Amino acid sequence: MWLTWRAATEQALYGENGFYLRERPSGHFRTSVGASPVFAEAVLRELVAVDDALGSPPALDLVDVGAGEGGLASRVLAAAPPGLRSRLRVTGVDLADRPARLPGEIGWAAAVPDGICGLVVANEWLDNVPLDVAEQTADGPRLVLVDPSDGAERLGDRPQEADLAWLDRWWPMRETGERAEIGRPRDEAWASVIVRLARGRAIAIDYAHPVDGRPPYGTLTGYRDGAIAAPVPDGSCDITAHVALDACAAAGERAGAVTTALTTQRQALRALGVTGSRPPVDLARTDPRGYLQALARASQEAELIAPEGLGGFGWLAQDRFCS
User: Fold this and answer.
1) Has residue 1 been placed in a domain?
2) Which of 3, 88, 198, 298 could cross-link with 7 by S-S, CB 3.0 to 4.6 Å?
3) What is the CATH number for 236?
4) pLDDT of 74-132, one tens digit each?
């Protein structure tokens, strides 16, 4: 059975007994949330800044899109000061069932709620929004079809006109054999978040590439048990592809975002106080335990902002009706 990559991935990840409905993400790949509680602390600082910009409304939303096991929402809630926590409405959004140990204060939904006033965080969500793959031929772009049972591929029809227009604008292919991942479904997914943001900020964090630096043969990858695997859409592994965050940013602006900042996780976290600075050596003499704790924290911070790793992720922040 031959399917487009988008249809095959949708079935493999989110269909009956799909990968994300069956597996714990932390068992297959490492994210910023799992790497260190420092990430949640930084998100809390961002939440406080949004709260201040909104004038401390009676109810402040934190919406974690692609919440997985609920780690980010739980840590931010636990670290929030009492005055903020009493006003917080925390919602995890995921197609998987609500985690058994999630605090009762955290809501759980399969879709992004309407009328959000506060902060939306989508950490490594867009890369798992299924998309189609196109290959350039002598006659123009053709869709790549895949056999879900073994990952074998063959070429199919031309992409639809809307996808051809997206390719022309955001991922032009120049040579026969080049491939592109058609990010229009991700643009639509991100726009659907922005339109549900009444007042506040939405942040998407993901591995990304710019329009002038797209990889010529795409980024489609599988992950299983913490290691890279062949991207076979049979439900046995995660299937992911880098995100054209610049295209998502443009879609967000069309959906009503009034400000846009597209940077890296390294730059964003450094602005939030995550520097990776090591403690002074003298502290080892005066406070050995404190020195070891500070050294461990510095190591965690360094992982989050490492430019060749998590720090190289794209960080898209867009505001709507938020000064």
Assistant:
1) no
2) 3
3) 3.40.50.12710
4) 999 999 999 999 999 999 999 999 999 999 999 999 999 999 999 999 999 999 999 99
CB 272 within 8 A of CB 45: yes
| Cα–Cα–Cα angle for 258, 263, 267, rounded to 5 degrees | 125
Residue 161 lies in a domain: no
How wide is the angle at C-alpha 18 spanned by C-alphas 12 and 21, nearest 5°? 140
Q: Which domain holds residue 24?
A: 8-130+180-272+307-320
Give the residue from 171, 189, 190 showing the smallest Cα distance to 181. Answer: 171
Q: How far apart are CA 246 and CA 211, in angstroms?
A: 7
DSSP symbols for 119-138: EEEEET-GGGS--EEEEEET
Provide the number of structural domains found in the chain.
Answer: 1
Residue 173 has pLDDT above 90, yes or no: yes
Q: Is residue 167 a contact partner of residue 247, using CB atoms and an 8 Å limit?
A: no
pLDDT in tens, 176-203: 999 999 999 999 999 999 999 999 999 9
pLDDT at 25: 67
State which H helix or E strand residue 203 sits in: strand 197-206
pTM of the full structure:
0.94
Q: Which residue has the tokens 């109810």?
A: 59
Residue 125, in any domain of the structure:
yes
d(CA 158, CA 239): 23
**β 227-229/221-224 pair status:** antiparallel
Q: Nearest 5°: phi and psi at 214?
A: -70, 140
User: What count of residues does the chain have?
Assistant: 323
Of the candidates 51, 120, 116, the one whose C-alpha atom is nearest the C-alpha of residue 85 is 51
Q: Which two tokens stand for residue 98?
A: 């609500």
